[in-house]
Amino acid sequence: MIAGNRSINYLRISVTDRCNFRCKYCIPSTPFKVIEHHKIARYEEILRITRLACELGITKVRITGGEPFVRKGILPFLEQLCGLDGLTDVSVTTNGALLNRDKIRRLLDMGIRRLNFSLDTLDPEKFARITGRDRFHQVWDAILTAHDMGIAPIKINAVALRGINDDEIQAIAGLTKEYPFHVRFIEYMPFDGASWSWWREMWCVCVCGVCVGCVCVVCVCGV
């Protein structure tokens, strides 16, 4: 696919708006409605759209949510997706809480080699505060299991929050010294209705050393 002078070969697909976490920066504090099931694209529709996209030059697809693994039938769908002609790279972004060794083995068997994990803290208590769920050890075990089983690269996405996890930036970045992980600090994306309405106070100062007082997306590759 050609857009201007750019060649586009990457497609990102959200398969659900539902999630098993209730992250403070993502879920509104006021009541909200998820998309009704009959209004969400069926797997057959997603596969057809992706097949057409592959005919136009798409070779890489990332599956996201919500949390992809809360949707029923996600593994058979991923297996069909990986079998599409022309598709050479399928990856998934997940919080990891629903992953175990058996599921990771199935992902590997169908050809998925890359996973992105959302992990904002290495502190179990802080994890529960941010996500609304006491699942830190399950998530960390899933990350280490994926690493041990050969998933690579593993990318860690951490939302940088002033006064919440900014004291852990060095520790999170330090994971790259012990593991071949790619760590990325993601800008907090405020929106109306977020439960922390004082979002301006949550911005972290730039950690790239180039500018001061801004919010940056920083990739720490361990080099």
Provide keyphrases for this structure.
223 residues, alpha/beta, TIM Barrel, two-stranded antiparallel sheet, 7 helices, globular, disordered C terminus
How would you describe this structure to a colleague?
With 223 residues, the protein is α/β, with parallel strands linked by helices. Helix content is 28%, strand content 18%. The protein has one domain (2-160): Alpha-Beta Barrel (TIM Barrel), CATH 3.20.20.70. The chain has seven helices and nine strands, in the order βββαβαβαβααβααββ. The strands form two sheets. A seven-stranded mixed β-sheet has the order 3-4-5-6-7-8-9. Strands 1-2 form a two-stranded antiparallel ribbon. Helix 1 (43-55) links the parallel strand 3 (10-14) and strand 4. The protein starts with a strand and ends with a strand. Mean pLDDT is 86; it is low at 193-223.
Span between N and C termini?
33 Å
CATH fold group: TIM Barrel
Flag low-confidence runs.
193-223
Q: What's the Cα radius of gyration? A: 18 Å
Strand residues, percent: 15-25%
Give the H and E element order: EEEHEHEHEHHEHHEE
What is the global morphology?
globular
Number of helices: 7
Total number of distinct structural domains:
1
